[in-house]
From TrEMBL:
Its cofactor is FMN. This is Flavodoxin 2. It comes from the Bacteria. Belongs to the flavodoxin family. InterPro entries: Flavodoxin, Flavodoxin/NO_synth, Flavodoxin_CS, Flavodoxin_lc, Flavoprotein-like_sf. It holds the Pfam family Flavodoxin_1. Keywords: Electron transport, Flavoprotein, FMN, Transport. Low-potential electron donor to a number of redox enzymes. Residues 26-195 form the Flavodoxin-like domain.
Length: 201
């Protein structure tokens, strides 16, 4: 079962020399139908590649799962997975096409973060459902989950992406339909959070 490093983990855990100095191979796997998830992936690559808190020699590589297999996840220390929710809580088409492959990928010891795209007003009862489905798909594996995101600031009815206590999404929740003006701010805050959680490990 996956472990979860909380939003304020950096305040409770001390950094270790290995976490600060070891090169990180970061693989960013995404599926994108209307380009929004891909655009966010590209922003993440740029922001992380220039982040001074990442050790020298670290790399951030993009993988569009439409063209590249999920088995490539085995090559990375940190995985960032991008997914969008479609219609009434449906998976993005590229993730759906490779859904059975997730169980075949060995995520033991991997650090995994998820971000998702959704429409909290148009599909308020299914907001970010795909993030929750992806979280559940990898939860049985022995991986470390980071990047949970608070639900404050959103207006929705229900979501499979929310933790049992109702306080967190299983990953960063972005809404380009209704809160596009908050995307860059949320993304920057989330990436800072990821770096703090990595150091805390």
């Amino acid at each position: 079962m996956s472990d979860f490093v909380g939003f304020d983990a950096s305040a409770t855990l001390l950094p270790t020399e290995n976490a600060e100095s070891r090169q990180m191979k970061i693989g960013l796997f995404y599926g994108s139908t209307t380009c929004y998830t891909e655009i966010v992936a590209e922003k993440i690559q740029v922001l992380l590649s220039t982040d001074p808190s990442l050790p020298d020699g670290s790399s951030v590589t993009l993988h569009n799962i439409k063209d590249q297999p999920l088995t490539l996840m085995a090559d990375y220390d940190l995985l960032i997975l991008g997914i969008s929710t479609w219609d009434f809580g449906e998976l993005q088409e590229d993730w759906e096409a490779h859904w059975d492959d997730i169980a075949e990928v060995d995520l033991s010891g991997k650090i995994v973060a998820i971000y998702g795209m959704g429409d909290q007003l148009g599909y308020a009862e299914w907001f970010q459902d795909a993030v929750g489905m992806l979280h559940q798909a990898i939860a049985p594996q022995d991986c470390i989950r980071i990047g949970f995101w608070p639900v404050e600031g959103y207006d929705f009815i229900a979501s499979k992406a929310v933790t049992e206590d109702g306080e967190w999404f299983y990953g960063l929740a972005l809404d380009e339909e209704n809160q596009y003006d908050l995307t860059d701010q949320r993304l920057n805050q989330w990436l800072t959070q990821l770096m703090n959680e990595l150091i805390a490990l």
